Structures
1.
Amino acid sequence: MSGVFDFQLSPYVYPFVKNNNVLLLNTKDMNAMIFNEEEHVAAFMRELLSPSSFGVIRVDTSTEQYKHCKHFIDKVCKLGNGLFTEVRAGSGIVPVLNPYLLKIRTPAPGAERGTNITLVLNHECFHNCSHCTDYARQFTSCTKRNSHAVMNPELVRSLLNYYNSSDHFSIDICGGDLALHPRLDEIVDILSPVEGICRYHIHYRQFKNNINRLPEQAGKIIIVDFPVADSSCFENPQKYTYNFVVSKKEDLTLCRDYVMTHSIPNFYISIMDAGRSNGFMKESIFLLQDGLECSLGSFSFKDKVRIINSHYFHKTFIMPNGDVYSSAKGGPVANLYHDAYLHVKEFVQNMHTQSWEAARNREGNSNVCTDCLFYEMCPGWW
Ligand code: SF4
């Protein structure tokens, strides 16, 4: 067999690589393949799992890499754990997405549970992204609302007083369009001493107006949806982390093109349920659950999105008017202009812990996880 081939794992295979050892767990039949002390195989798998591979490695069978890994590739394919497909020279790689690949691309929380705060500084924005409202419900994003409320810098200052340098916490900062906040510079100054754990989230359409207003050292997440109308946010990509919003198969290919063309080192993918592409989401994200008929399989599609999307787990959202939310459902649980933050913090934390435990508790009557085959390896514990 000679030529150029694309290698990918089957979507129901969970890979683990540690030092020079590789474990592939087939979650369909629960059989495992183990390759111990296989330096080349481990390097091959690391390459496959690096975000920029998009789940596919192109292999030329005349290379040393293939010679070293042929036994691995053959065995994986023979047991139905992967595909090795011949491709025409020059044809593009078709990226793949599955629950595991999505999970490894999801950014680390950056703080212990319960201490992740999202500050929404304002609601105004002059752009008109078609899924604006949905974005903020599904991942950390700007979103506009019909309100001129803006966050008072003093509220930010007093919030920080409740934390000291030994606390583990992180702050995500979103608008509206942050540049439209009349006192943005003051808030940036207040947050600057804690900038190691501050991340500003701006949409690429807001890039030009915002980027010079934000501190050089602070984390900046650029939200990119498709099609991209202005590429200026891709200059100096090493300075930013990109959050690519993918709602259909074609978006994934575009995402890979941008990553390759601009040599983007840091990015992650947010899956967006735009209500028009259930096929893609079902195939790419929920395939495991359906295939195994775990309890999630019997939930409606909308509920699966809600359950699997961890956007709201253990987070506190503070709106410009001081309202505090702990989830997308229901109203505010407190208001920081009226309630002491310490009480609010404790209350929200307890609420998250209780709901999480209720969902996970084997003894409970209304839990959603009991029959799930992934109980012990649930991404919620990662
Ligand atoms: S840039 Fe952000 S806030 Fe403005 S419309 Fe788009 S998603 Fe909404």
Note: The first strand starts at residue 4 and ends at 9.
2.
Amino acid sequence: MKHIRSAFGVWRLAFGDREPVDMTLLRYSIARVAPSTIKFLGCICLTASLLVLSGCDRLPGKPKESDRWQPAEANKDFKSLFAMNCRACHGDEGVIGPSISVLDPFYATIVPGDVLKKVIAEGIPRTGMPGFARSSGGELTDEQVEILVNGIKARGNTQKEDNLPPYSAPLGNAGHGSEVFNQDCAGCHGQLGQGGKNGGSVVEPDYLRLVSDQYLRSVIVAGRPELGMPNSQKQPKGPPMSSEDISDVVAWLVSHRQPNEVAQATPSPIPNGTPQ
Ligand code: HEC
Ligand code: HEC
């Protein structure tokens, strides 16, 4: 009974007779066993990494060969050149740009290759179209400009239909143009061209100041089909437009420009905005 007179006594009764852990033996075992275990685990890890490295070519995040940096002039791919330099303004499949779709098959058929080359290389002065050739302060080589020209022309129809209006022509008769406008355009753009239910104003001086005469003609010839404006051959009311009718409507639109704000007031490489 003397054993259980205190808490200490209870503890002695429960554990007092046990052998203490032999610390010397424990330390000895750790010292013997640990190094061989570490070596064993290390071997497993090394083997696993070698397997991963040799067995699978693609580690997550490893760049592909095509991701390797290359100088800009090495790019000879039409799609990528167009996407990087033109798509933001001229759109592409599924992307509508603020300016005419130069990849539209009708436009690509009508526009002459030499005009494309000049416009892409030198730009169009006093408009938002920059020059891309190095000689014009751009970054494209002559070869890249050529790739763009050929790529755009390839979107056109190889067999050009007869009676398509020519890409460019001199301005026509504004008086007759106003009649043509009422017949072919007013249904969407309003009677005086000031905007209707299916099209915005096309007589705003601020708009007309930004675009060349040739651009207005190109838009009427090829339309903006991606926005709902038909090309000159698919008129909702009436027959396909003749080249003269187109020249007359352009003259009528241009007559709304403020005299001092004419985009072509100063000499430009494209006389009267009509590349020949
Ligand atoms: C079926 C409707 C429709 C008809 C017909 C139509 N347009 Fe349009 N037009 C549009 C739409 C839609 C746009 C694009 C949105 C906008 O600018 O209003 C447009 C845009 C334009 C633009 C600006 C294009 C640009 O890229 O800056 C001009 C210029 C224009 N039309 C002139 C004409 C002329 C001239 C005619 C007649 C020969 C005509 N349109 C016939 C619907 C039409
Ligand atoms: C910053 C916007 C912008 C970029 C980028 C741009 N363009 Fe243009 N482009 C325009 C504008 C605006 C016009 C209309 C100029 C005018 O009024 O004649 C135009 C006109 C054109 C025309 C003549 C349209 C006509 O009247 O028949 C062609 C062709 C053309 N661009 C091709 C290209 C190509 C190809 C590229 C890429 C290498 C490109 N553009 C890049 C804004 C741009």
Note: Residues 32 and 196 are 93 Å apart (CA to CA).
3.
Amino acid sequence: MLIHSRAGAVSAQQAKAALAADPRLKLVERAIKKFDARGDALLEVLSTAQEAFGYLSQDLMRYISLALHVPLARVYGVATFYHLFTFKPAGEHTCIVCLGTACYVKGAADIVSTLEGAYRVKAGQTTADGKLSLLVARCLGSCGLAPVAVMDGGVVGKETPGDAIGRVATLIGAIPEAQR
Ligand code: FES
């Protein structure tokens, strides 16, 4: 499908390319497929996107608009109507831990609870200083690498609680209070 903008025709493929190889997009694609790319699944797909990315970027909304064959204005309309949607990343950095079955059985919940304790933040929330958003996802489609985390868009496989703390510390440039 093509839409026309001032810059010319934009395909769903181009809109998708703008999101690069972000593994979180797989969750959105899966939701789109689950609903056979039906326009009436817009709210469900937006919810999945919000949960996976922590916010709805313009590229993401454009991609959803094209994939569901719904005008971009309608996507914006629905997204701005419901308070559960946000349009900016809450924290400067994002760490998403997969809690899908494969990751869960390999200890992903320990990674989440370790990060929660170390950075005094609950999953789904952002630290008081706004440096880190800790999010969880159901399956990032890389189950062979379980447990999987995505740190600022980069996939990390076979993660451990200790390594996750170190990686997040590097990411945000601060060691957790609990370890000072
Ligand atoms: S369950 Fe974690 S990547 Fe599939």
Note: The helical segments are 12-17, 25-34, 42-53, 58-68, 72-81, 101-105, 108-119, 161-172.
4.
Amino acid sequence: MRTLPFKIIFAGLINALIVHSTHGQGELEFSSRELSSTEVELFCKNSGPGSYSVRVDFNLTNMTSSRDDNSVFVVPSGEEISFAVLTATGGKWKYGFSSDYVQGDVYAVHDEQHIYHLPHAGGRDVRIMQGYGGSFSHTASNALDWDLEEGSPILCVRDGIVVDVRQDSQHGCMHPRCIDAANFIKIEHSDGTIADYAHLQYQGSEVQEGDSVSAGQLIGFSGNTGWSSGPHLHLKIFVSTFDARPTGIRTRFHTSRGARYLEEGQTYRF
Ligand SMILES: [Zn+2]
């Protein structure tokens, strides 16, 4: 999976009047408020279920900004934050900016003490068909693939909030060109990391964006959509980045043999 930045353009020209203008796309909304005849405060509001990391590139004429170009700020779910104050330096002034954003918190630090729940039904051994750094498609990725037939129940590995769901794809193939055809569920955890459960079955999600979910809860069904060599579950826990594809994090899971990192070719159960 990749997390592509979206672009928002905001441009304003403040005259003598007080204005409150908004311009947004999807779950993020930008607005401005004139504090005085020479100062403008900029806000970003997040109406989505998860956090967003945002960076803006200012285009200022006769103004300075309290925030550096392209410095990243995080807007938690349901909050509106002030991210910059622009100050006129004399003469005719105007401002604008473009912005990129990615879902999640780029400053998140993974809780290394957390032990994850296995994502498949209990009481059965399931093989890790590709491990961290695996040679088929994980060479640059700390992700795990479980060997699960189409339609297998997928359990939540850690408590969190569902921040993104796709389940309309009916397509998969063994070529990287199919990477964007994967169905998925993304869940944000309390430490700001995100779990991406991928290759799910068509219409294979049991949860919706905004749902609060618990470890061990049924969230969907495995499939073979996207870039995939056969039915399986691909799971990656990651900290968001503005790079196309986050590397992912190695985590421990509760297994019948104790808490451990999972290895390619081995089978595990709980
Ligand atoms: Zn995989």
Note: Residues 13-25 have pLDDT under 50 and may be disordered.
